Amino acid sequence: MPTIMITGANRGIGLELVRQYAADGWEVLACCRSPENAPELKQLAAANGNISVHLLDVTNAQQRKVLAAQLKGKPIDILFNSAGVSGSWSAQGFGHCQAEEWLDVLHINVVTPMLMMQDFAANVALSERKIIANMSSKMGSIADNTSGGSYLYRSSKAALNMVNKSAAHDLARKGISVVLLHPGWVRTDMGGPNGELSVEESVTALKRNLANVTFADSGRLLDIDGSTIPW
Ligand code: NDP
Known about the structure:
Blueprint: E1 3-6, H1 12-23, E2 27-32, H2 39-47, E3 51-55, H3 61-70, E4 78-81, H4 99-125, E5 131-135, H5 151-171, E6 177-181, H6 199-212, E7 221-222
Parallel strand pairs: 1-2, 1-4, 2-3, 4-5, 5-6, 6-7
């Protein structure tokens, strides 16, 4: 049974990834920072023996270390870094940006996917599929930025794209593909009610893209239809 590890698995796209991969028969390591406050995830795990729930605030070095020790030697086919924050949309227009919130967004969206890759690449290298997926966004594309604003979120995803590109080079020698995924504009707490896709539609497409990933795709930023988003 292939194994997927998902961060931010308690709600939004992360939770739907858990649901769909578990339904497909994968072993799912569902990570979230507050399992006791994750009723939907706990319910899913109770009903599906192939889901285990793990405590992981991705910014918490001690929690990452404990989990890495628990999972030492376990093959992980896909490490999916889905956890992310946008920062408050009202506080990222020109003239409104503040350092503290910006640094939080960069910490969660840029630094922690890298630390997760460092901590769990050995597990991925042991697996058959050997994929790391980092959730990016079209909003991190410089080419796609025709409207300005959203400084905190845009800069964090643009930086994540560069982190991913370097990791794709560095992990090639272990045979690991490191890809960036755009999930579409999705109706979640982050995406809001006007998003174009339901979580079900988004995750169905993300899974299709991941199923088609080959080593030649490492370093790419994949749009929801599988095409490449320009940097
Ligand atoms: P949600 O706001 O619905 O969920 C965010 C998830 O990230 C939650 O599970 C949250 O956990 C988790 N998270 C945040 N900070 C941490 C942390 N420090 N440690 C562990 N988990 C954390 O967002 P989405 O599901 O919409 O987004 C998922 C990913 O997709 C993000 O990376 C986002 O940037 C990206 N994306 C989303 C788009 C959309 O339209 N929705 C578009 C493009 C990209 P908690 O409940 O504990 O806060």
